[in-house]
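Progress against Task 2.4 (sequence-to-structure conversion) is shown through the following example record, which the project officer requested during the mid-term review.
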Amino acid sequence: MDEQRWKTVEEIFSRAVALPPDLGPEQRRHAIEEMCTGDSDLFTDVFAMLEEDALLNPLLDGGLDQAARTVIDFGRLPSLVEKQIGPYRIIRLLGEGGMGVVYLAERIDIGGKVAIKLLRDAWLSPMRRERFRIEQATLARLNHPSIARIYDANTLEDGTPWFVMEYAEGMPLSEHLRVRNAPMRERLELFRRISEAVEYAHSHAIIHRDLKPSNILVNNNGEVKLLDFGIAKQLNQEESKLQATITGLRLLTLAYAAPEQLSGGVVGLYTDVYALGVVLYEIITGRLPRRRQTGDSEDAIDHWQAEKTSAVVRRERPEIWRQLIKAEWADLDVLTRKAIESDVDRRYGTANALQRDLTALLEGQPLDARPAEWTYTLSKFVRRNRGRLLAAAGTVLLFAATAIFYTIRLQVARDDAVREAARTQRIQQFTEELFDGGDKSAGPAADLKAVDLLDRGRAEAAGLGADPEMQADMEATLGGIYQKLGKLDKAEPLLTSSLDQRTRLHGTSDLEVAKSLTALGLLRKDQGKLDEAENLARQGLAISRQSPGATAAGQAAALVSLGSILEVRAKYDEARKTFEEALRFQPANAANSAQRADTLLELANVAFYQGHYDESAIFNQQALDIDRRLFGEQHPAVAEELNNFGAIEANRGNLPASESYYRQSLAIVERWYGSDHPETAANLTALAQTLTAEERYTEAQELLERALAIQKQGAGPVRANVGTTLNQMGIVAYNAKQWDAARGYFNQAIDTWRQIYGDHHPYIANAVSNLGSICQQQKDYPCAEKFYREAVTRFDSASPGTVNDAIAHIKLGRTLLSEQKFSEAEANSLAGYNYLIQHVAQTNSYLGNARKDLAAIYDGLHRPDQSARFRSELARVSQSSTAH
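Structure tokens generated for the chain above:
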């Protein structure tokens, strides 16, 4: 066999070894036949190598543990299907390799599918245990939608370690592309998502070191999951000798390994970039680059002979070649070649640099990797503005068109400069008149307030009819400020007029129109007109996605706006997906941007409403870190995140910490906005909730009365907060056993929320549940049952799978227990218990109530074993809390 033939066999063998282990024999054979492109002799050679490889001579090729396994002959690992590991029931085998096995499992108590990974023969090899531990520790540090998360970890009775991961549905990358026959732009967008996940890991100082298609799953929606961090390395951390040995035991995949890995050199972020480059080459061409050897010594390292992607695709996949223009293929050639440079100094230094050039390619911008030649930059500009240039150039020859283009550009630039100068002068005049009220002889009044400036600005904007574009911009700005001040009645006509002006000027598909639609949607949200709000936000997002000038930042902003509306509507799952998509449009180099902090804050809110307090705290801390770096300690954004921590700690049962966070937040907001602002009122209500839980009712009532007085001065979001304040005043009266007063407050809250949100919002379910609690305290159990059933029905419809839903079930269970309806009581109390046990602290009062009720319910059902179980839990939690 000649050298070139051997290289081809070796290449296809490397790809075949990386095929998913769960492929059937026929699927595997068919995939290898496709790789051999009809060459039967080549297929025979590759298949013979695979059969020989399957025999595995462990004494020659494997590690020490593999050799010991062969000598001792343990046989196959026994199946665990239908067995139980902790609270998980094994469903089926997902995959099995030399290191371990992965099963699909289901959580018995609360449901939900997960993946469980177990280490094979853990006692046999310390190196295996260490690699397993590395993978657990690495996954625990990462929280990204494209990286499988870790949920749990423990050991079996025989000491076998296991951990539970998010179950990632989908197919390995290569198989996904083959099955979908995906077009080239879809492939590149998919790769961009992969590189974003790698960049996220890099931002947490983690190098994957084994990136390859079989470690990347893709589902039908194009969402990716990065798997197998078993040989990942943390930057700035020395490897132990054991870890270094593990990495050296040929655990990496040679086909995707960087030269520095093969030579035992220093690895870095650029090492993963190399593997990404090989993956990208394979995504584009359908095969790996060819190997070549540099140097004549025995220690010479194989590198890729990177035949241009364009040449491979044009020769072997002409249907894909036609999907991009020639200049785009030229950029792809440069990009892939730079990604798989053997010299790390010439390679992309980070996944972000690679991703930035890929984004530039997709958006028609110049690549950083290309030399800054004027012809190249001009060609990019021409492609991005082809429509305008065609209109200007007509049928004139290219040279003449270029000359005309520059002439026109100079003229346009001059006209733009004149127009901009006039606009600058007009803005200067506009600003001066805000302060002097049009009287040039008078200076600004000493007691001039921001609201006065806004009112003057509104009057001035009305007189800008000669410059409708400036008028639209000014109205949008002023309307946004009025909205922030809670003056929605003044914001509405400004934002509506701005939208109308921009639509007349630019048509319905312009990005400025998209911004106006989104802004008006957010105003409708504050006004409680949620159907209209969602509709406007979706229109704005659609334009932001489809407009030729669409940017990642613009799409992210539109997504966050839509997500915030979905969040208010209690569509938490949909809101979460929207915010996660927004994060993908905010690259890692935007980690310190206020926009990213806003998105993280919204994710924290959604996680909180779903009862995921630990996850909410993580998102909230990330947002807080960014805002503190950007704005310092005394900014409203920081106050909002401190307020969130107050709510999280309150729900965890840590009331002193909650009060501290709320007071810090209130101090910042009051200094920033003043003592009579809606934000101040919202913070007063939040603090009052914790004071109520601490049984400091007089203090709480004073704060709530002050908040209500502020809120009743305004409209819109203030009206929504009026409902929150009234509900909390009802809780204070309830705790003081003032039943009539409490009932009155709860009914007022229901009426307020119903006017704003309609009849199906979970806020209403909360107040209805509170009415049931009054009946329960008065021992009017039929009345309590009626309200609790209504609350459960509302929660199950509007926001199932949340803490409030679980609490409503527990309350209904307690009433049914009081009525000795034991079977119905069991179903409701157990449903609430099963949810809370997974989402709140063990000392949570509602969880304690559920345990007490279930013990009594099982007494009534004459099932002493279950009754004893819950009494035992109560005793254990009580002892634990006493010990602390």
